[in-house]
Amino acid sequence: MIELRQLRYFMALAEHLHFGKAAESLHITQPPLSRQISALEADLGVVLFSRHSRSVELTAAGRDFQQHAKTALAELDLAIRSTRASARGERGELRVSFTMVAAWILLPELLKAYSDAYPDVSLALNEVLPRDLGPALERGEADIALTFPSSGSKSLCYRALRREPLCAVLPASHPLAAATEFSIAALADEPFITFPRQTAPALHEAVMSCCRRAGFEPKIRLETHLQQTIVNLVAEGLGVSVVPGSMRKMRMPGVAFKAIDRSPPVEYGVIWNPRNENPCLNTFLRCVGVEETGDRGPAQV
Amino acid sequence: MIELRQLRYFMALAEHLHFGKAAESLHITQPPLSRQISALEADLGVVLFSRHSRSVELTAAGRDFQQHAKTALAELDLAIRSTRASARGERGELRVSFTMVAAWILLPELLKAYSDAYPDVSLALNEVLPRDLGPALERGEADIALTFPSSGSKSLCYRALRREPLCAVLPASHPLAAATEFSIAALADEPFITFPRQTAPALHEAVMSCCRRAGFEPKIRLETHLQQTIVNLVAEGLGVSVVPGSMRKMRMPGVAFKAIDRSPPVEYGVIWNPRNENPCLNTFLRCVGVEETGDRGPAQV
DNA sequence: CCACATCCATACGGAAACGGAATCGATGAT
DNA sequence: ATCATCGATTCCGTTTCCGTATGGATGTGG
């Protein structure tokens, strides 16, 4: 059976066309080289070199073998370097799941920084509902999720990356839309558009405490999952809402955003599965400033 | 240093994802397989398989390595098969030199038969003057020559393949052109266009003996090397000539070909260098019906 | 013409690598 | 709790490989 040693020896001899010189370049002596070349020729059943009295030269078949062996060895070298890069998380695939809200504030800058630092990692983006992030990470269908803190499984890790205040959103036609002074308490009697609690418990709690602090319990008229759908419905005049401040970036016509005094911060961050062995996950976490503690503790919710 | 054995073992394990089954498929026991995989991982500095309690699976880097290793092994297999084919003369390059005259009669059928039988041999055709055939073969610049017998070097081999009679060629405007009865003796006083003797001694001798048998010595007006140039000059009315019968195929307007009674045959064949190691030469010779006697005797001239 | 140098092939001995049998340790299954 | 499964480890006999020394063929220079 042919071995790589024989190929390496062959390539050296094909280059030097002299057993002594080739052996020297391989840091071995001449007899082993002679034997390995003979063994290779015997395995192939083909004479690769014609040994004349004063010269060694490649046969036609030898030149053919040299061509192919060169590409085979190059392919093998590529395999080694590529695999090492893969293991270092410098190449491969990272599957990023995110909710639309996170996309507005976190996604662009994080992905820009990461793909600049690791251009050989292909990014597979997938926007999902907040409630689907946890299961996707658990099942290994995604490597990292960008969203608010999740009350998901205890086996996932979470690190906060950004905080921002909430803001009220109301139809542009609403009397309060043009007011210079705004207090959330003014919305006490307005119909609210919110989302189911289990979709994003932390965000839901922030919205609720915002209202309670102003002394009222919101009257919920509609519930839908995605924040941008909420803004869309507000634009249609169906109600008002309280959403993360970065939703302003939507620049949706027909709505007005209003800052909320002493708004509780809503937090965004990354969630991942510590059992995930994708090396690109480590490079990503390092890139976004998460020091890997190595602990596999549960997510901080 | 990585060896092919490790790649083969790796591929088997990557396929079976079970050390016992993979070892069985390799006709070895499990311990050596474990060791070789470990050694491969150590050489790469990369963990290729994640061994869990009840399952073995490829890591991301392992999948990457599998991809590249597969193509590298395929390239190597291609190298082996291609090299063996090369050695059998089933692929490679055959450099065929020939004179124009041989091209009319020998070249098409021989090359058709050969390239049908050996489609992976690329043919490099090169038309040369007869006097250059021998040196080209001697210097290894050509593998085979199609021409008439050469008085060239004693180190070359020759085998006859075809014989044909000579024929006279004269301008269409010549009084003899339309004659039904023709004898070469009628050209005794015509200016002849021939070629230098050393260009093709055997053919030259045949032409001369043709005339002498008719009782005259040709009056040579012009000499040029190539037979078709001779026919061109005859068409211009510069003289007459005696050329191989297959020159009729030129269908040159302005000339008439006349059969010669009891013409001495002119012979065509192949010339090659017995020291030439190109395996395609052997397949070519076998293909055209030359049994290789293995003797390295001089050419039969 | 003969001694010599060059170069590849071959013979032999020690070292390293390999494969096989037995065993260990960990993990699920019954 | 017992057993079965599976990969890792240990130990040993065999094979393979490398290095030194030598052989054999060829070309060179005195």
TrEMBL record, chains A, B:
It comes from the Bacteria. This is Transcriptinal regulator, LysR family. Keywords: DNA-binding, Transcription, Transcription regulation. Belongs to the LysR transcriptional regulatory family. GO terms for molecular function: DNA binding; DNA-binding transcription factor activity. Gene3D superfamilies: Periplasmic binding protein-like II, Winged helix-like DNA-binding domain superfamily/Winged helix DNA-binding domain. Pfam families: HTH_1 (PF00126), LysR_substrate (PF03466). Residues 2-59 form the HTH lysR-type domain. The keyword Transcription regulation applies. GO terms for cellular component: protein-DNA complex.
